[in-house]
Amino acid sequence: MSQTSHPPRPRVWVIGLDGVPWTLLQPWIDQGHLPTLAQLQAGGAWGGLRSSIQFLTAVAWSSFITGMNPGKHGIFDFARRIPGTYDQELTNAARRAGRSLWRILSDAGRRVGVVNVPMTFPPEPVNGFLIAGLDTPGLDSAYTYPPELKSEVNDVHFIAVSTIGKSHSQYLAETLEGVDKRFELLWRTIDREPLDFYMWVEMETDAIQHCSWRLMDDPSHPNHDAIFQVYKRIDQHLARLVAKLPHDVTLIVMSDHGAGPIAKTVYLDRWLARHGWLHYKQERGLSLADRGRHLARVGVRRTLYLAQRFLPVAVKGFLKRFSGAHAAVETFIDKADIDWSRTAAYSTGNLGNINLNIKGRDPQGVIEPDQVEKVIQAITKALYELRDPDTGERMVAQVMRREEIYTGDMIERAPDLLIRWTDDKYLATKDYENKPDGPLFGDKQKFGRHGAAYALDQTGTHIIEGVCIFYGYGVQPGARLQNAQLIDLAPTILYLLDTPIPRAMDGRVLIEAFAPEMAKKPIRYEEDEQDIHDGPDIDLSEEDEEAIRARLQGLGYVA
Length: 559
Known about the structure:
- There is one protein chain.
- The strands form six sheets. Strands 2-21-9-1-8-5-6-7 form an eight-stranded mixed sheet, with helices on both faces. A four-stranded antiparallel sheet has the order 12-13-15-14.
- 34% of the residues lie in helices and 17% in strands.
- Residues 300-333 and 449-454 have low confidence and may be disordered.
- It has two domains: 12-260 and 462-554, Alkaline Phosphatase, subunit A (3-Layer(aba) Sandwich), CATH 3.40.720; 263-280 and 338-443, 2-Layer Sandwich (Gyrase A, domain 2), CATH 3.30.1360.
- By secondary structure, it is α/β, with parallel strands linked by helices.
- It contains 18 helices and 21 strands.
- β3 and β4 (88-90) form a beta hairpin.
- It has helices at residues 22-30, 35-43, 57-66, 70-73, 101-107, 150-153, 168-190, 204-212, 226-243, 268-274, 288-310, 313-325, 327-336, 372-384, 402-405, 489-496, 516-519, 542-554, and strands spanning 11-17, 45-50, 79-81, 88-90, 112-117, 128-132, 144-145, 197-202, 249-254, 258-261, 264-267, 345-348, 353-356, 396-401, 417-421, 426-429, 441-442, 445-446, 457-458, 460-463, 465-472.
- α11 (288-310) packs across α13.
């Protein structure tokens, strides 16, 4: 592969492997099990890739897409609070601020192809084509640009392998089939037309890790090597891609974050209630409507639990659609049980975010503005005192204020406090029973709404460090990336494609990855700083939101 010729317009291919960590990848490379990835590492530039805070799929991919920190693009989880209320709405491409990487390239006249990247629905018009990813409501939706592309790919594209009502063996088999279909979509699109930039994402790496991590410690389990099987299948497919890699293409293999085991789950709302910062409505204090909602939620949960365990698959599929239609309502029902008039703080998400309830800012705020600092210090102190009941280990590594880690005009949408758990091995979860006297910790998490309707355990979670390998045109073999971050990839790709970098981007060009001839090119920035709030002018229907929420719940991404 030549590294001296300089074609008029070099190209970039990006292969995203969601959630892949070096802690798995490196041992399997060293043992000879992943020869294609070993070839890329040996002949390329590589290193760790620090994700966003928090390192959730929605946040991380939005940071990659924009090259900006969440304080600018405004995505802090899969859901966000509707201003002036305590209700939540799903985030998506339409609710992200900032121009996407492919929008910038399109505006510069570059042809782009984007396939299955999360947080790309609804699809935005580009100079090329786009097939939306995980947040697509369903295959009956308009998930491609241009719209007519849908007829070319609908037979091989899928959104996610469902966890509903399946044994682990069945789920693994469908996941491996899913990997094959993902690559069929790659082959169908990568040469569809001449492209300057092509990107494709494989999501099954992340999903199989969530439900299989602890199986690696149990050699007697028939699926103890489930994660390895998925990695092996991907490596085999990548061999074909690397074999045909054109001499003028820089290949980037990356992950948006890493993965590791869940040591314990933490019922953060119960913890807040135990300390007096969160209060639930007492039965005698509930309005008639609230009592009805509470009883309905309990009844629906119990019905779904029994139905998903014992009913035929076809009926389970109907129940999935039915429960999805009530997802947004359930979010409201859960919050209706909180006594906002006495609640100072409550949790959101599943990595550990805490919102304060401040007078003058929140609808029923209780914390006086001059007392906010005192409450933050008290919560922070108590979190640092939290100990694993089995090991005595301190569970919280860092409590971060949003102003300490984010910059930009969207900070007000961020949680007030963000928790970084020790070794990223604890998972915050919601208290669906609303029982302050319930246990503070759990051993595992179930997939799906309330965990009741799904057979598979969630034993893997995200860690902050992902992987990155550069290979091919312009790359310095053997180079190591230095403190690389996920937000560095967008400006680096623009640099490779001779496109000016927006000044709003927070990342840097990973110049250490390139051979001297490539690295001597000047880094060019846009002359004028453009408004980063110019996101796609598109939105979701209520039905779309319900379908997406149901899927994300089934994959363990949202409560």
